[in-house]
Design a protein that fits this description.
Elements lengths: L16 H23 L6 H8 L3 H7 L3 H24 L5 H17 L3 H11 L4 H23 L8 H22 L4 H26 L1
């Protein structure tokens, strides 16, 4: 008779403090984005964030002592997500035309896939009247702008052509405007048609500058 061996014991890894902190951050990000989209910046207090996230106020403030630090964390999180989207879109695109098309497709996706982009617009607008928020988010936004300019130009390890900086500013302004129009209730199909108008201009200008910079 064959005697089967007893099953190996299941080893359950104990959650570490790092695990708990990461879980808290995830809940706080999700709650903050939702509140920014639905209530606006002024109404998105740390007390409301903690309640919506289902975490204690003490746990939230242990990681982020001020509201401004919560907002900077949301911007950093979204910047990482945006960078991943651009890298994925551009990773297999060799020709300038394919790179530009992939980039513009990703820009449209940023505005239409969920509330995060509008949440970042709310944070950026609030900086003008909140010195603490302006100070803590300035380095984050500067890194985002630098990343975007280098990826638009395709020169990630060298200073980009200044004309790409100008075009990046125009594209950023358009995306923010689309997010605001969507929040105002403009139908998505109307925004899509407007974006296509911009897409044709932007595509031609990107390729023109890329050709001049080559």
């Amino acid at each position: 008779m064959t005697v089967s061996s007893p099953p190996a014991p299941v080893v359950v890894r104990r959650r570490t403090q790092a695990d708990r902190s990461a879980e808290t951050r995830g809940k706080v990000i999700q709650a903050t984005v939702m509140l920014l989209q639905t209530q606006g910046y002024a109404a998105t207090t740390v007390q409301r964030i903690a309640k919506t996230a289902g975490v204690s106020l003490g746990a939230l403030q242990h990681q982020f002592p001020t509201k401004a630090q919560v907002m900077a964390m949301v911007l950093r999180h979204y910047a990482v997500k945006r960078a991943r989207l651009y890298r994925r879109a551009l990773s297999m695109k060799g020709s300038p035309e394919a790179r530009v098309d992939a980039m513009l497709d990703t820009m449209w996706r940023l505005v239409t896939d969920g509330p995060e982009f509008l949440a970042t617009v709310e944070i950026e607008l609030a900086r003008r009247s909140d010195p603490d928020l302006e100070a803590v988010t300035a380095p984050v936004l500067a890194r985002i702008d630098q990343f975007m300019t280098r990826w638009l130009s395709g020169r990630r390890m060298a200073p980009p052509d200044p004309r790409f900086v100008e075009l990046r500013l125009l594209n950023s302004a358009l995306l923010r405007g689309l997010a605001v129009e969507r929040a105002r209730g403009v139908p998505l199909e109307d925004l899509a048609r407007s974006f296509e108008v911009w897409r044709r201009f932007s595509r031609a200008e990107f390729l023109r500058i890329a050709d001049l910079s080559a």
